[in-house]
Amino acid sequence: MRIIHDLDEMTETARGWLSGGIIGFIPTVGYLHAGHASLIQAARQECEYSIVSIFVNPLEFDQDEAPILYPNNLTGDIQFLDKEQVDVVFIPRFEEMYPPDFSTYVVVFGPVAERLEAAFRPEHVRGYATNIVKLLQLVRPDVAYFGQNNAQHVALIRRLVRDLSIDVKLQVLPTVRDTDGLALSIRNQALSPEERQAAPLLYQALLAGKALIEQGERNLALIEKTMVDVITASPFIKLDYATACDPQSFEQPGDMLPETLTDLLLVVAAHFGTTRLNDNLLLRDGHWLI
């Protein structure tokens, strides 16, 4: 397993040593878990080479937010990736990625960059979009792997790849969950025991909304209320939103969903003390991806 810190070395490696085969890329912020393992294993099965990046981008967060949300576990992450037989680990230095005179950003417009998560974290979209474009340019992958657990990131990346004509295939895999349904996330480690016990209500709320839709309910307000009632049953949860949207554009449907549904995203987000979690369920081509 090769560990690379230098940006030029990463690009030269992609153009040279790795150029003879299909490159699969998994961008991460570290503190790796079974969800990341599922992406790595898919890349190893489908590609000749696998590259994992570890980089917490402060441009995506408030000044003091990133170290709290994403604690460093680099030694453990390297051991994790070695066990998963990753070919290259790319750990860029912040001062190289974003030198003091850095002044070029990727700005995305439209509902996918303005609604839901973007409305709660307006500084996040520009930083995330800029960073993911830089990583794709540096690594030059043929396929980039992402989890469905962060649906708005997925939609944002699809828009970036389309609008900027980035030559990469996106592979989005189902959310990996704990036995009680909670989506795996680095943020889960910050939950208190009481908050951790309440956290699966997010997934239960999504399942309740899904069940209503499968029963033929199309009134969006009623579907939203059902999800809200599940989440707000716990005093440890402060709800941000529970709604439905188009999985590509993130535009909100009208008051009534179409009788024939093929693509829809149910999304929820809430605070558990100082920890914010989100989750989603995707209906694609008439089938739910759970």
Secondary structure layout plus pairing:
Layout lengths: L1 E3 L2 H9 L7 E6 L5 H13 L2 E6 L10 H5 L4 H10 L4 E3 L3 H4 L19 H4 L1 H18 L3 E5 L3 H13 L5 E5 L19 H6 L2 H14 L5 H12 L6 E8 L18 E9 L2 E10 L2 E3 L1
Parallel strand pairs: 1-4, 2-3, 2-5, 3-4, 5-6
Antiparallel strand pairs: 7-8, 8-9, 9-10
Helix pairs in contact: 7-8, 10-11
Keywords for this structure?
290 residues; alpha/beta; Pantoate--beta-alanine Ligase, Chain: A,domain 2; 2 domains; six-stranded parallel sheet; 11 helices; 20% strand
Walkthrough of the structure:
By secondary structure, this protein is an alpha/beta fold. The protein has two domains: 2-173, HUPs (Rossmann fold, 3-Layer(aba) Sandwich); 186-284, 2-Layer Sandwich (Pantoate--beta-alanine Ligase, Chain: A,domain 2). The protein is built from eleven helices and ten strands. The chain has a six-stranded parallel sheet, sandwiched between helices. Strands 7-8-9-10 form a four-stranded antiparallel sheet, covered by helices on one side. α7 crosses α8 and α10 packs antiparallel against α11. The longest helix has 18 residues, at 122-139. The radius of gyration is 19 Å and the shape is globular. The mean pLDDT is 93.
